[in-house]
Design a protein that fits this description.
CATH class of one domain: Alpha Beta
Number of helices: 29
Helix content: 25-40%
Number of strands: 32
Function: DNA-dependent ATPase and ATP-dependent 5'-3' DNA helicase. Has no activity on blunt DNA or DNA with 3'-overhangs, requires at least 10 bases of 5'-ssDNA for helicase activity.
CATH topology of one domain: Rossmann fold
EC number: 5.6.2.3
Strand order of the largest sheet: 12-11-15-16-10-17
GO molecular function, one term: hydrolase activity
Bound molecules: adenosine-5'-triphosphate
Catalytic activity: ATP + H2O = ADP + phosphate + H(+)
Distance between the termini: 90 Å
Oligomer: single chain
Keywords: ATP-binding, DNA-binding, Helicase, Hydrolase, Isomerase, Nucleotide-binding
CATH architecture of one domain: 3-Layer(aba) Sandwich
């Protein structure tokens, strides 16, 4: 059908998607009403537009005009002008005033507004000030629309274009012409690839310094997404070259994976050295320490994100790693090209450093490149931890007495290390308590609480996720909150506007702060926490360093332990004995690289051999629906299937769809909503997938009376869809403790079906029974760390279903992606500085230093 041009004013906007800009509107053109559809920037009713496109007949909606090209016109006749001014687009002008303005100036109205705005004051009811405001608004609207239209030509969505316009205003034309990469470097939501596409359309050279510089910064951001806080220069330049599709200089190579130094081996070291009662310096996990670098498993979280970014299911290890290595030996031309390229990269890196966009540090035999925020956050975190880590001198004997009294009061038989931990929590500013499942961490925390309470101290308990906080509350009998809630978070983390009410100016008032599940705390949350903890507070950090690391950047728990600067007690005795819990014993075996016996003679650890994905899923459904609830005396909703991946034959996407059909099939009386092919049905199990601090919840009594209200639904919170109300257009989800939350359709992106969840998402939660499909997946993901984390989520029963060889391979696979972090090094630097300072102040102090105080 041939293109036509129509011009008219927007009489009514029937529908508009803010996300895509898709708009359905009624256009009044030559006295005729036309339904027009197309992707348009933000326009208002009353505006005059000119559109190019064609008339088509839609099967349901009939004849409509499909807009291909679009431009805004200044209203030309008096009626359009009046309509525009009174449409509400210009604040402060209503119908009557618009009428008076147009009556006064006629068809020259817009000329007057733009060129002689002062004359608006001639109209009754318009002061000079108001005239100026009208002028500014009209100009601003016009400029904004022109800007958005200009950006849309580069394929930028309207919503994003509007944000770009708000950030740069009319400077955007120059930015696009000179350096579109600024958008990627400075604005959330604009990635390097988008800026690169804009630059390509704007005709920018591929070896432009702006492009290379932006590529380097983007490479650092990607590394942060995988958990790293810096990259060694060689690694950075190689990854950046790959991103920029430029030759990879053969002078630089990267080792992407390396064996994990497991918690077990760290503990082994500790066992050998032991924690000698009376050791002068704080006992630390060591042994493997010298060899142990800040290595953590970032692979999983990163892999999950990459899956979301569209990596095909079928990607094999070979495919994945193929991209990581140079393919062939270069010839002389290629070598020259590589050299030039290396020079360009180095030069751009120097410029970034001069502009303070990166920090380059030479340490430990290499050059390291940090984003300034990452560098200073680690540095400040180390400094704050170091400052907090005071030893209350001369109190050791008192601390021991208090710890023993608390143990007596709670009728707890503490072993040597547990007692050591309680004493150090009292005598030190910072204590790290670490150990695997069943090693008595909770018991130790409870004794600490009793001790601090007896001293009349105020205690705060917190954990990184809602579920972990709930578990902490149950285990201690004391209220625990999320760390975010403790710090009185406000704002929206998705938009990067998080603020904490508790900080260095308004610190926490409690005398003792105990944080559980520390393995999930990333460096930024840690820094925010420490800011709010004043020196003199007792900070107790509890966690299992063998669990998956935090989703966010950093390797906080492991680095703190590895630094050997902070008092650390590692619990290694497993108190839950084999006859009582094979889950715990097997988890410890797996952590040490041993293979559990899978003869199904256990009461809580089972392996069901199945080869085909269909059989695995069928078996999982049978267990969830029929056998496990009775076996562990729990609700069907408490039996959790957890799997390594989102995609694939037994990934969460597929499992959720199949399990939904089996456990909560469609029925005429069950209402449902659909979002991106996923059906959300009344009765479905769902999980909140991001923190929403503002989301309000209500608890109602039997007859609907409100019993309690509050705000905050967190990433990982699980619930059931209770109702979908067609009248209010709201979906009500009931979370733990009967907290009911209403969701609008547009908020469905905050929820996912949760019949099956990824192991990463289940981190920090516990369930009565856990089912884990064992089917082959990417080796990078399927490692010991992951299976250890999955198994330790179960309280009463674990059922693995699939191929036993997969379990064996996971246990043997200790390869994981390296997280580049330096909190340990910074802590050591703080300590060195302290010694140096002491030495400078009194260079002969060592001469009259007493013999090492045994501390206890
Ligand atoms: N010193 C001890 N002597 C005997 N039993 C103990 C001792 N300490 C803890 N226990 C028992 O061992 C079991 C596990 O202890 P606890 O729950 O404190 O460990 P945990 O490390 O917190 O475990 P998880 O990480 O699995 O929650 C509990 O039944 C507890 O009563």
């Amino acid at each position: 059908m041939s293109d036509t041009t129509i011009k008219g004013f927007v009489e009514h906007i029937t529908y508009r998607s803010e996300e895509t800009g898709y708009t359905v509107l009624t256009l009044c053109a030559d006295g005729e009403e036309v339904t027009a559809v197309g992707v348009l920037p933000e326009i208002g009713e009353g505006e005059t537009i000119q559109c190019e496109g064609s008339f088509q007949v839609h099967a349901t909606y009939g004849r409509q005009f499909r807009i291909r090209e679009f431009s805004l016109s200044v209203p030309e006749d008096e009626a359009s002008m009046e309509r525009y001014l009174s449409s509400g687009l210009i604040k402060g002008i209503g119908k009557a005033l618009a009428h008076r303005i147009v009556k006064r100036f006629g068809t020259e109205t817009f000329d007057i507004i733009e060129k002689e705005p002062d004359r608006l004051a001639e109209v009754n009811g318009i002061s000079e000030k108001k005239a100026r405001e009208i002028y500014l608004q009209v100009c601003e609207k016009k400029d904004q629309r022109d800007g958005v239209l200009f950006l849309s030509r580069y394929g930028i969505s309207n919503t994003l274009a509007l944000r770009i316009w708000k950030a740069y205003g009319s400077e955007v034309y120059r930015i696009i012409r000179e350096n579109p990469y600024r958008l990627a470097d400075e604005l959330r939501g604009v990635g390097f690839h988008m800026a690169d596409e804009i630059a390509r359309k704007a005709g920018m050279a591929v070896d432009s310094r702006f492009r290379v510089g932006s590529g380097i910064l983007y490479t650092l951001q990607l590394a942060a997404g995988e958990g790293s806080l810096y990259l060694p220069k060689a690694v950075l330049l190689q990854r950046a070259s790959r991103l920029l599709s430029m030759p990879i200089p053969s002078q630089i190579t990267e080792t992407p994976l390396q064996p994990e130094i497991s918690q077990a081996s760290m503990q082994q070291g500790c066992l050998e050295e032991g924690i000698q009662p009376g050791a002068a310096c704080p006992p630390v996990t060591s042994g493997a320490g010298a060899a142990c670098q800040a290595v953590t498993n970032g692979a999983g979280a990163a892999w999950e994100r990459e899956q979301d970014a569209g990596i095909p299911d079928s990607l094999s290890d070979e495919d994945f790693f193929a991209g990581l290595y140079p393919e062939s030996v270069p010839g002389s031309d290629e070598i020259r090209e590589e050299e030039e390229h290396l020079e360009l990269l180095e030069d751009c890196l120097r410029n970034l450093s001069a502009d303070r966009k990166v920090i380059i540090k030479k340490e430990e035999g290499e050059e390291r490149i940090f984003e300034p925020r990452a560098y200073y956050t680690e540095l400040r975190t180390a400094k704050m931890l170091h400052d907090l880590n005071i030893t209350y001198k001369g109190t050791e004997a008192d601390s021991r007495r208090r710890a023993l009294a608390a143990a007596r009061k709670t009728k707890t038989e503490l072993d040597e290390r547990q007692l050591e931990a309680v004493i150090r929590a009292d005598s030190c500013g910072v204590l790290i308590l670490t150990g695997g499942p069943g090693t008595g961490k909770t018991t130790t925390i409870n004794t600490m609480i009793a001790m601090f309470e007896a001293e009349g101290l105020k205690i705060a308990l917190a954990a990184p996720t809602g579920r972990a906080a709930k578990r902490m509350t149950e285990a201690t009998g004391h209220d625990a909150s999320t760390v975010h809630r403790l710090l009185e978070v406000s704002g929206d983390p998705e938009k990067g506007t998080v603020a904490f009410g508790k900080n260095d100016e308004e610190p926490l008032e409690q005398d003792v702060v105990i944080i559980d599940e520390m393995s999930m705390v990333d460096i930024y949350l840690m820094a925010s926490l420490l800011k709010a903890v004043p020196v003199g507070t007792h900070l107790v950090l509890v966690g299992d360093a063998s669990q998956l690391p935090s989703v966010g950047p950093g390797s906080v728990l492991r680095d703190m332990i590895h630094s050997k600067i902070l008092p650390t007690v590692t619990l290694t005795t497993v108190f839950r004995q084999a006859q009582e819990s094979d889950i715990v014993m097997n988890a410890h075996r797996i952590n040490k690289g041993e293979h559990p016996v899978i003869d199904n003679k256990s009461r809580d650890f089972f392996f069901l051999r199945r080869q085909r994905a269909e059989d695995i899923i069928g078996q999982a459904i049978h267990l969830v629906r029929d056998s496990l609830p009775k076996y562990v005396q729990a609700d069907t909703a408490d039996i959790q299937v957890m799997t390594p991946m989102k995609k694939g034959l037994v990934g969460t996407i597929r499992l959720n769809s199949v399990m939904q059909q089996a456990l909560n099939p469609a029925m005429p009386r069950k209402r449902e909503w659909t979002r991106s092919d996923v059906v959300f049905r009344e009765g479905d199990r769902v999980m909140q997938v991001r923190n929403n601090y503002q989301k309000e919840w209500t608890i109602r009594g039997r007859y609907g009376a409100v019993i309690d209200t509050g705000a905050g639904i967190y990433n990982g919170d699980m619930g059931v869809i209770r109702s979908i109300d067609p009248l209010t257009d709201l979906m009500t989800v009931e979370f733990d403790e009967h907290r009911c939350v209403d969701y609008e359709k547009s908020e469905l992106d905050q929820l996912e079906l949760s019949y099956a969840v990824t192991i990463h998402k289940a981190q920090g939660s516990e369930y009565p029974a856990v089912i884990i499909p064992m089917l082959r997946g990417p080796r990078m993901l399927m490692n010991r760390n992951l299976i250890y984390t999955a198994i330790t989520r179960a309280r009463k029963c674990v059922v693995l279903i699939g191929d036993p060889a997969v379990l064996d391979d996971m246990i043997d696979n200790t390869m994981q992606e390296k997280r580049y972090t330096t909190l340990d090094l910074r802590l050591q630097e703080c300590e060195e500085q302290k010694h140096q300072q002491e030495e400078d102040e009194n260079p002969f102090a060592w001469m009259d230093e007493p013999e090492a105080d045994d501390g206890l």
